[in-house]
Structure formats: C-alpha cells, structure tokens
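Fill in residues.
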C-alpha cells in the first residue's frame, strides 16, 4: 500500500499589501504540517502554488523557505522513477525523484519557453514537476503511476488532453492530476471548459486542482472517484467557499482498494450573505447590512473575520446604486472585520430604463449619428427629433445664436 498526501491551490502571495497577506503562508504551513505528521510516501500538489505568474522576490523567498521546511521535515523513503513517458518518448532509466510532485496552475503558466515560478522551485531541488507527462514511481516495495497535466488555456485544454493521451502503467494504481476548469464544478456555460467526461479512461483516481471548494464526485462513465481538495486560502469569497471547509487529503492506495481521508485546516472565519434590495430605500438596506454585520461580530475570533454581503435586486423608485454608500459601515466595523460589500447586482428603475433603451438601439443597429440624436433627445426629455437635428445642424455651422433658440 502506498500513502499519498494531496494539497492544492495554496496561492502564496495572495492579498499582498492587505490585512490578509499572511493568510496564504499561515494556511499552507498548517496544511503541510498536518500532512507531514501523516508520514506520506509522496505529496502531490495540484497547481497554483503561487498567486502570480511572476511573484515578487519576497513571495518567492517565502515559498523557498516553506518548501525547504517541507523537504527537511518529511520522513519518507527514497522515491525512484523507473519509467517515464513524455512527448511519446519512453525512458526506463532509473532516477531519484523528489517526492513532492506538482503540476503548475493557470496562475503560474507562462507562454512559450518562459520559466514559471514552480519550475524555479524545481531548479532549487524542492519539487518535481509534471506537464503532459507520466512517471512510474517506486517507493520501497510499492509503486504508483502518476500522470500530470499542468494548467493550460481553457480553449486548448480539450485538444491538448486528447493529443497527450496518457498511457496507463500495468499492475499499479494510476493517478491522474489536472489543473483546469470543469463545467460540472464552475458556474457558467463556457463551451471551452472541460467536462468530467473528457477525462481519460482507466485511472484509479482523478485529482482536480483549480476549483477552490472541496468536492468529492464519481466519474459519470466509470464510477471512479474524482477528488477536489479545494484551495487552502479563501481567494474568491463565493458562497461555496463559505460553506466548505479548507483542507487536504491523505489517500492510501492498494491494487484492490483504497482509503480516502479529508483533513480540515483552521482558516480565517468567513461569512457570506445575500440581501434582497427589492423596493427598499438605500437607508433601509444600509440599516439591514449594519444589523447583519453586528450579528456576526457578537462572537470573538482569533483573526478578523471576513464578512461578504452581496446586494441583489431593484431599489425603490427614484433610488440608484450610487445612493448605497458604504463609508459609514467601513468606519464602524473596519477595525473588527474585513468587509467585502458588493452592489454590482443592484439595479434601479432608471438604470433599467437606460439598459432597455441601449439594448433597443443595439438591436436596431442604429448609426452613430442616430444613436447620438436619440440619446440627446432622451437627455433633453425632448420628443421632437426634428428640433434636435436642427440644433445639431446649427452647432455644426457654428451658429450659436440659432442653436440657443432650440434649447
């Protein structure tokens, strides 16, 4: 039996320059400490170790410190690659591999031959990387096949996956690792996203990075386990992230059966709520937000909690989103909570009318001159287009006296 540790999306460097800057490092250290205590044979990292493609030197330095610590503290046997397949070339040359095996993510991918930050960690002797590559790894008397596809642009993911077509190793458990968007897991209807059905057949386990909330699924065709560890730091502040624990996996694999255990980590408290603003005045909405924040802050936390409130709906007649000013909320609660207040989905009657007006213009495919005239008519509350046209003609001629007569 072989024991694998799985961690994903630690996003080192997230929140630099803000109160949340320490979170990615603290959470990653805690997660690795949990895994190290389990004494795994191999640690698998599913991409997005870094938050930026070109991290600041300070971030890269902290990452080197972290992975140096992991390498030093791991109590593992020597891991040896006995067979590798890359670009359809098979090698049976035995060589030692660092048993922290990672793919890089979409946040780290760089175009062409540019070196990404995960490859820098590899050059420093701290991780081993896979990209469209399969390796047969031997640890003591146990063996496992690892197959990894690092993050690629969504538009090319399906074709790259198809052309790679990873080959299974015989008589060993085979693990497939990928860092990509999947329709079943990400809201939206982007046709470029992969589906679980695009995953190649025959693997004992599929491990998915990129998705930030922990999920356990079965492959729709094979019934094989699909595990999504999720991120170790809350970066997206979605409802899913407020409902799911952050953590890591320990997986024991044998030829006939296996055992999967999710180990949670402690993270900064995060609360998510949505408030309907339908037919409400801005003052009413702000009072409701204040009461909700006060309710969350009745408890005492070791770290400032994150409180995200998303406003949805249409305000009362005569009110606009601009009337929702959050300054007083930030002033009242900013020393006790990290607030994320979102009014991007709030509309008003006036905005709705303007939106309908612009959509109508778009559908009619009016010329720029026609659009200008219609907008001017609307702004002037003038229904006589002929007068507006005359006004524009007088302005074009420089006849300001006649133009004033039309206003």
């Amino acid at each position: 039996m072989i024991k694998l540790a799985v961690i994903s999306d630690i996003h080192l460097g997230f929140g630099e320059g803000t109160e949340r800057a320490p979170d990615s490092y603290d959470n990653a250290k805690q997660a690795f400490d949990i895994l190290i205590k389990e004494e795994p044979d191999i640690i698998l990292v599913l991409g997005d170790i870094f938050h930026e493609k070109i991290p600041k030197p300070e971030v890269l330095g902290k990452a080197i410190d972290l992975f140096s610590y992991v390498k030093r503290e791991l109590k593992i046997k020597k891991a040896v690659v006995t067979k590798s397949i890359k670009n359809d070339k098979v090698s049976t040359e035995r060589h030692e591999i660092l048993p922290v095996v990672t793919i890089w993510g979409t946040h780290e991918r760089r175009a062409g031959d540019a070196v990404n930050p995960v490859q820098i960690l590899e050059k420093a002797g701290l991780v081993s990387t896979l990209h469209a590559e399969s390796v047969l790894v031997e640890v003591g008397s146990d063996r496992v096949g690892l197959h990894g596809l690092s993050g690629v642009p969504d538009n090319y993911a399906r074709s790259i996956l198809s052309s790679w077509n990873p080959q299974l190793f015989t008589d060993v458990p085979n693990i497939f690792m990928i860092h990509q968007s999947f329709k079943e897991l990400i809201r939206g209807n982007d046709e470029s996203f992969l589906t679980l059905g695009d995953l190649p057949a025959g693997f004992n386990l599929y491990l998915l990075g990129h998705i930030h909330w922990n999920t356990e699924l079965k492959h729709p065709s094979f019934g094989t386990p699909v595990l999504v560890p999720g991120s170790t730091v809350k970066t997206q502040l979605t409802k899913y992230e407020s409902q799911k624990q952050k953590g890591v996996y320990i997986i024991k694999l044998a030829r006939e059966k296996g055992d999967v255990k999710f180990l949670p980590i402690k993270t900064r408290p995060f609360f998510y709520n949505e408030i309907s603003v339908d037919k409400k005045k801005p003052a009413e909405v702000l009072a409701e937000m204040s009461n909700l924040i006060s309710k969350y802050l009745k408890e005492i936390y070791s770290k400032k909690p994150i409180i995200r409130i998303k406003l949805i709906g249409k305000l009362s007649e005569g009110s606009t989103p601009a009337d929702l000013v959050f300054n007083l909320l930030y002033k009242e609660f900013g020393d006790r909570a990290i607030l994320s207040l979102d009014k991007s989905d709030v509309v008003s009657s006036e905005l709705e009318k303007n939106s309908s007006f612009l959509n109508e213009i778009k559908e009619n495919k009016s010329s720029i001159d026609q659009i200008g005239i219609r907008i001017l008519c609307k702004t002037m509350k003038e229904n006589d287009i002929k007068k507006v046209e005359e006004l524009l003609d007088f302005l074009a001629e420089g006849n300001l006296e006649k133009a004033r007569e039309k206003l």
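The longest strand covers residues 338-347.
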